[in-house]
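Friendly challenge for the regulars: who can give me the structure tokens for this chain first? No prize, just bragging rights.
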Amino acid sequence: MGRRTQTLFVASVLTLILAVVGLWLPVPYVTFAPGPVTDTLGKVDGAPLIEIDGRETYPTSGSLDLTTVEETPRLNLLGALQDWVSSDRAVVPSELVRPPGTSQEEIRQENTQAMLDSQDQATAAALSELGIKPTGREVVVNDVPSGSPASGLLRSGDVITAVGGEKVTDQESLKALVGRSKPGDVVEVTYRRDGRTATAKITTRPATDDATRPMIGVTTNLKLSYPFTVRIRISDIGGPSAGLMFALGIVDLLTPGELTGGKTIAGTGTIESTGEVGAIGGIQQKILGAEQAGASVFLVPKENCVDAVRMKPDLRLVQVASLSDALDALKTLQKDPDSTAVASCPAEQ
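First reply, four minutes later:
Bragging rights claimed.
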């Protein structure tokens, strides 16, 4: 074998080795795939996912399924190429899911907070739809990250009642009262824990997004009080996209009859306390998950309809912009599953 041939052979082998190794190198992308569906009218670990205490509830049948997306955060080139050609997966830049400079822990905290907020918003929207007014409100500590200014002083479940002696009425007032100080100042936070009131002196730190703004390092959610309690049990799902389905489940349990008509209804969408339904991510994967679970109808936020209809799924796509839209659609479909009076996602042009 001549020197030229040997050189070409070695170069070819090295190129092949580099190509094979390159397939296993990480790439800045993540994969979305259909995740599990969960019936909001069902049970979690033997207990109702939605539990209402102090108010009459009514039996129901069928399913109101919330849908999820599974994310593959650490993707190599080979996996990305395989998922790229898959019909049930989507490959997106990781920066769309995890903005540069944010840690996995920060993302986890944000998703947890968003899920808790969605439960509270869903409860408020559902009870407002039924004409049930809140009797009070309070700011509850959701999480105190290790190493934060409030670590060891406040804990999850504490109700913050005042800062510097002034009453806290909501999350905006909490932020404003803490904001009167400067980073490094000590603020007195009054809280209620297990029925007892106490005060913690917390040394503030600069906020991560604004060095001039002080923070005490807790995440909170606003709890509205009602004449009865609504509890939602779910811990392995993050983000706000289950809000609509939580709200529908609450309405169904508190009203005679059944919204589902005994069928499997799936859907997704954020929700505001006013009942407004907002767009979410991963709509196509969520629809696929619903199809696999046997759903006949999928409730789609209006802003997501364009992406939803591109799939041409075998289930009916119902367009909703509010909780009232969803309730009206389900009541109509109970009487006539083929009704044209229900707003469907418009066909792709």
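The CA atoms of residues 128 and 308 lie 29 Å apart. The helical segments are 3-23, 77-84, 104-129, 171-178, 243-254, 283-292, 305-309, 323-335. Your move, everyone else.
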